[in-house]
Amino acid sequence: MKGHYASESVSVVEQLTRLLTSQKGRQWHWIQMIRVRHMYR
After folding, report:
1. Of 2 and 14, the one with more pLDDT
2. From the centroid of its chain, how far is CA 14?
């Protein structure tokens, strides 16, 4: 169970890193951050 969860989290991290490495991913990341900030205001 624990090992399976660890492998799942790693796959998620890999996907996030791939998105962040691409310029489009960075833009999307910043847009999401701005949206979150506006929502919590």
Report:
1. 14
2. 9
